[in-house]
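FAQ: What does the model actually see?

It sees only this:
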Amino acid sequence: MADKEHKKVIIKKVKKGGHGGAHGGSWKVAYADFVTAMMAFFLVMWLVNSVTVEKREQIAQYFQSFSLIDTGGRPGLIPATDLSQVAQENNPPNIVEPISENPASPAKEKSEAEKAAEAIKEAIEAKTPDMKDQIIVKTEADKVIVEVTDDAKGKPLFALGKSDLTQDAKRALAAAAPPISKAGKGKLTIEGHTDAYTYAGERFTNWELSTDRASAARRELEKAGVSPDSVGVVAGYAATRPFVPDNVYDPKNRRIRLVMEVPQPPKEAGSDSGAKAKTAEAKGKPNIFDKPQEPPAPPVSPIPKEKREILDQQIERLYDESIKGKQ
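And it is asked to produce this:
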């Protein structure tokens, strides 16, 4: 009995793991406050960037004279009506406009080839209006193509079976020569084409005839002002490339074809941004490609140490109260 009375009884208490520390939910409250503070910070930055320099100076002066211990009651704040007015008056204008039902498409700048083709058409209509149906001017990429065709009912370009140019053909080439000489920055190709009628003998064929006619056109163009150095190719294609494929005997297949290269000039560096900047300025909108040229904001003096300590205490007190309220 004595041994039993002197036995010590040891009671072990096992503490169960709680939900504090990293496994608790207090970090969520801190994270939510951090996100709220960041949202408020970016909102303040947006409002500051939206106001004018004068308003910024007024706000800076307000915070310089701000005091938490003023006896005159609550410090003066900017009225809510003034803030709404600032947001409405000083917000940057919308860059994206609402889409209208029938928006006007911007005018496309003409290429050098299109400008040269228009100049040739104007010269032909002014000097040879009676042959406008026999002269076709078109563009393909950076090339201007002039087709001077024959017409059995109109004005032939050559004597039958010969390479001698008629007066009408000389007038047509003389009208097209000045704009070709002015706009031609690449090589000029002069082609001769015939119809599918053949000669009885084998010594002189449509190949020789088309080549001779192309050479005759070259000489006439050079007389009218086209530089010999600008001519790159003079060739005859006989009847292999008809103007009217469905009828190889059509008189329009007898023609002179001029192909002039008009390459687009290289764009200067920054030309796109400069053009867009001019367009934006013309429409009265801010230039989004350059930084705004605003005068530097006046320097703001730091908050005095005494006020900063009081402000920190107030912030800590408000934070503690928010934590207790959420718990």
